[in-house]
Amino acid sequence: MDATGDEHELRQASAPAAGQPDIVRVEGLTKQVSTPDHDLTIVKSATFRVRAGESVAIVGASGSGKSTLLGLLAGLDVPTAGRVWIAGEDLFALDEDGRARLRGRLVGFVFQSFQLLPALTALENVMLPLELAGQAEAAAKARAELARVGLAERLGHYPRQLSGGEQQRVALARAFATGPKLLFADEPTGNLDSATGAQVIDLLFELNRENGTTLVLVTHDAGLASRCDRRITIRAGEVSAG
């Protein structure tokens, strides 16, 4: 990208476009852990915004703190300092149960390791978050989501009976079943071969477009990152959004 394009992206990062509210706002987010020798700063004073409907890639070298940052954004981990707002709600002003309720209302997740429950069928895995949210017609909604990802014929199969790509498609169906406003994905193709990974990513962006869901994903894949609207880069704990 030329300098003009870089400047445009930086302006977008600091000043969301009119009519596009922030769905994630981060100010001074810091995470430190203590070791016997010293305190290690994994994320240092991160400040950035994500607009509703954006797709954003979190990129950086292995061990740079990408997954830690994602966990903080989702409220799965607690920062040493700083604040995160999701859809205007101060995440760390809530207790653990409050954060869980917020995630249940607004957030979906896709993980590298799929995180399917082995004792449940594909249909039951997708039904679970719907049932936990108290939604009616959970089975019908889960069937529809599995059909959208091409698994209408695999409803009764258990994770062990599915390929890696099929398991990740079940995970995508589960993530989108509740209609989340925000989807966090942590290396969603990390356990897939390149061809299967490409299919899953095409599906992820298709679902993202159809639902208007904001997508924030951690990836080491430059090709995947390039498909996102912009990047957030982390190097040795220092976060830059642009």
Describe the structure concisely for a colleague.
This protein has 242 residues and is an alpha/beta fold. Helix content is 37%, strand content 26%.
Describe the structure in your own words:
The chain has 242 residues and is α/β, with parallel strands linked by helices. Helices cover 37% and strands 26% of the residues. It is built from 8 helices and 10 strands. The strands form 2 sheets. The protein has a 6-stranded mixed beta sheet with strand order 6-7-8-3-9-10. It has a 4-stranded antiparallel beta sheet with strand order 2-1-4-5. A hairpin with a 4-residue loop joins strand 1 (22-34) and strand 2 (39-51). Helix 4 crosses helix 5 and helix 5 (138-148) crosses helix 6 (164-177). The longest helix is centred in the C-terminal third of the chain and has 18 residues, at 194-211. It is globular, with a radius of gyration of 18 Å.
